[in-house]
Amino acid sequence: MADRRHRPARVAMPERPPRERSADFGEVNLGYDLAQAVTEASRCIACRRPPCVDGCPVGLDIPAVVGLLRLGDLEGAAAVVGMDNALPAVCGRVCPQEHQCEGACVLGRKHQPVAIGAIERFVGDWALAHEAPRPTVEPSGRRVAVVGSGPAGLACAGDLARSGHAVTVFEALHTPGGVLVYGIPEFRLPKRIVSDEIERLASLGVDIVTDAVIGAAESVEDLLDTFDAVFLGLGAGLPRFLGIAGEDLVGVYSANEFLTRVNLM
User: Fold this and answer.
1) How far is CA 188 from CA 66, 89, 93, 94, in A?
2) How far apart (Å, rounded) are the C-alpha atoms in residues 21 and 187?
């Protein structure tokens, strides 16, 4: 067992130089390379009862991922991540790990916690770049409509497709991705990452229909005439205003509208 009193320093996430990134909206963080990811994974003290798993909203088997990465088994690490997380390359970038898995890391009590988010990002990016063999799934004969192509809708669609169901995702806007596309700036989450994750879902047989405002042209009841079930992942698209003077003036935008205009228009 490694000496828990003395741990190597956390591997810092490489970043683009400030002068360079100030001139564009390209991603700030560059991500780990293999050596950095393995080094950071080696900082884990392999808790017998890992609280980081409880801190993860999807219950990702973090010790297994970290352990496989430490051994250099990237395919195995990607397979474990894919069992619980449909969007690892996205979550590795935008999840508030400091309050969730990393916030629960035992190592963080006396040292810096393991950079679980950066490790997940590395494994997620590797999985996108290396097409993993997909298990053969017997079609269930069931059809499911997913309304909304944000993270909830995409995760649901992925799980359903892996279970053998035929899935169609309906998106009101002209670009799928929901808040991942219109609500998060490019420098934090590149659109290509979201696009790659969506293409991976499409390869599972998921159909995505854009410019489809369910509730206008079609209702949920209409969908149930064709589909066996409907999942509503509508998101929280409306802002909450402060109720102060001037907030309704021309040129004053809510954060939602501002980000949507910047990202999609």
Assistant:
1) 24, 12, 7, 7
2) 9
User: Long-range contacts: 77-84, Cβ < 8 Å, 24+?
Assistant: 77/123, 78/123, 78/124, 78/126, 78/127, 78/130, 78/132, 79/132, 81/120, 81/123, 81/124, 81/127, 82/127, 82/132, 84/58, 84/59, 84/60
Residue type, 219: S
The pLDDT assigned to 4 comes to: 53
What pLDDT, on the 0 to 100 scale, is given for residue 208? 93
Phi-psi region of 210 (alpha: psi -120 to 50; beta: other; left: phi over 0): beta
Tokens describing residue 168: 């169609």
Give Cα 90 to chain centroid, integer Å.
3
Report the alpha-carbon distance of residue 106 to residue 51 in Å, rounded: 7
Q: How far apart are CA 86 and CA 172, in angstroms?
A: 22
Assess contact for 56 and 83: CB atoms under 8 A: no
Please give the sequence-ordered ranges of beta strands (E in DSSP) within the chain, or none if there are none.
143-147, 166-170, 207-209, 229-232
pLDDT of 110 reads 86
- The pTM (predicted TM-score) of the whole model is 0.83
The whole-number pLDDT of residue 1 equals: 45
Q: How far apart are CA 244 and CA 237, in angstroms?
A: 21
Alpha carbon 106 to its chain's center: 24
- The answer to whether the beta carbons of residues 80 and 64 sit under 8 Å apart is yes
Q: Which residue is listed with tokens 């991705």?
A: 177
pLDDT per residue as tens digits for the range 199-223: 888 888 899 999 988 887 788 888 9
Q: How much is the mean pLDDT over the chain?
A: 88
Low-confidence ranges of the chain (pLDDT < 50): 1-2
Q: Which residues contact 49 (CB under 8 A, 6 or more apart)?
A: none
For residue 170, give the 3-state DSSP assignment.
Answer: strand
